[in-house]
């Protein structure tokens, strides 16, 4: 058996407005953040300090995604633009756009060398990672889609929409395989492991689902409000969730047993407002939200 240890390593102040997106940096010792500020920021995790503004942007940023082999950061914005920024050279390489509405989610399909983004209008756009040509455009939902998650096998992709539906697509031809209503309110987070798909929503629910047909394995109510991120640890058997209710919770990935509840109420120097986003950075959990702060947490398992 084991217990989970978590402690706050540092807090990074500097943003002037809520933070909506985080991404790992290029060199393993930095991260990127963005939100309602008019810039994408890089932070040095070794020193716990501001490093640079990577790119000024014209609108709020809702999603960030790094393509390490290209030194490229994808920046999805409220104005419908998806910027491709070379972070090594600190220059804008390409501006991609959707036809209408914000870009809420972006991912890459490494084996196909494609970029896929979706947003307010429920239409997915697929561009070549090499030429930036638009390869496919297809409607997933008649309403807003806020989250995309490729499967590790690189054979399927799931989307979650505002009406609580999850859609499973085949990556070979981008055809729908399965569609299932899982949540009573919008789907706000998706994550996948070797064994299961996990879904979180504005209904404050967390579902563990079968990957092949989206059928329910387990259901629980992990938070009081919206689940904004579900984060399987890179190598430990745990999953972290963050929420609008200002708490971070860490779960056993197999049983969904609660291992840790991190919040101000529990005596931690945690966030005072909604936690909007989080990423794992090695064994550190990085969280950020409406209080304009980024917090770096050291996480470890201790045998009993």
From TrEMBL:
SUPFAM superfamilies: Quinoprotein alcohol dehydrogenase-like. Keywords: Repeat, WD repeat. The keyword Repeat applies. This is WD domain G-beta repeat uncharacterized protein. It holds the Pfam family WD40. It comes from the Bacteria. WD repeats lie at residues 12-53, 220-261, 268-304. The keyword Repeat applies. SMART domains: WD40. PROSITE patterns: WD_REPEATS_1, WD_REPEATS_2, WD_REPEATS_REGION.
